[in-house]
Amino acid sequence: MGEQRSLPVPEGLEGERLDAALARLFGFSRTRAAELIATGDVLVDGSIAAKSDRVHAGAWLDVTIPPPPATPMPVAEPVPGMTILYEDDDIVVVDKPIGVAAHPTVGWTGPTVIGGLLGAGHKVATSGAAERQGIVHRLDANTTGAMVVAKSEFAYSHLKRAFKERTVDKRYHALVQGHMDPLRGTVDAPIDRHPSGDGRFAVVAGGKESVTHYDTVEAFRAASLLDIKLETGRTHQIRVHMSALRHPCVGDLMYGADPTLAARLGVTRQWLHAVSLAFEHPASGEWVSFTSPYPEDLARALEIVSDES
Q: What Pfam families does its record include (predicted)?
């Protein structure tokens, strides 16, 4: 049984669509509000209504909010293609392949870094939520490259603090559409969930501070290879910032990339790779650095775009 909420429609929402009114009142996305209305969990003056119905001030809303689905636990099984770049008693640095999430989330049924490590017999820290043990930072499921996981509790707390205090050097290479102007620069624009509620993120006033430094490594006819240093680590940060500059990552159809160019270069995901990761080792205090080579699909796309120039 979900949580029951009953309240009158405030005057400020007079004439709004029901889905928009619910989104405003409860902080849902419009999509989530529409789902609740469709399943009969929203009554207006005791009756089921449509999402497009207009609400009137004083009308009584009865809303049943189902409990959130439980986050699945990691499935301990080896992940093909995931290699170990470095490992000791405190940390393990993986080269994450395409189609692998950092840890389980609601709605993700594919392989995870945590599940892959456990399945291959590696120990990880038990700090943090059970489904994301040892995870101190994440890469999107379809972003490849270097990612560190804490094995000891000491390393977990040390690395969590290092990422929070921005003392970790995170570098990415991105192939973006067109040419950057200026060739190097900084994007300082706040990011939050896209108002559509469709899983995208966007530059939104009042969002979380997000800072991306970029430098052009090479400009081709159709695209540019960028070296990117992240100061903050928001979800989809590079993808959102590049899209906001009208230079989305090649192949990133979610953020407005050209499908024709993606098809010509044979990429079926965003051309974005976590090329290196450097930080102070939790145990020794030494500055350590790890690099990941381009995977086959990105290397091939770069070859094609270079040959065309």
A: PseudoU_synth_2 (PF00849), S4 (PF01479)
pLDDT at res. 272: 98
Please indicate whether the domains covering 3-65 and 168-309 agree at the CATH topology level: no
Contact 249, 210 (CB under 8 A): no
Which of the residues 19, 90, 95, 140 is marked catalytic?
A: 140
Q: In the CATH hierarchy, which fold is given to the domain comprising 69-165? A: Pseudouridine synthase (3.30.2350)
Q: Show me where the domains of the chain are located.
A: 3-65, 69-165, 168-309
Distance CA 37, CA 19 (A): 8
- Alpha helix segments (H runs only) across 92-169: 113-119, 153-164
Residue 46, CA distances (Å) to 41, 53, 58, 59 in order = 11, 14, 13, 10
Q: What's the chain's length in residues?
A: 309
The CATH classification number of 3-65 equals 3.10.290.10
Residue whose pair of structure tokens reads 């590079």 in the numeric block: 238
Q: Is the pLDDT of residue 76 over 90?
A: no
Q: What is the pLDDT of residue 129?
A: 74
Cross-sheet strand order for the sheet of 47-48: 3-8, 60-65, 42-44, 47-48
Torsion of CA 203, 204, 207, 212, to 10 degrees: 20
Is residue 53 among the annotated active site residues? no
Write down the architecture of domain 168-309 according to CATH.
2-Layer Sandwich (3.30)
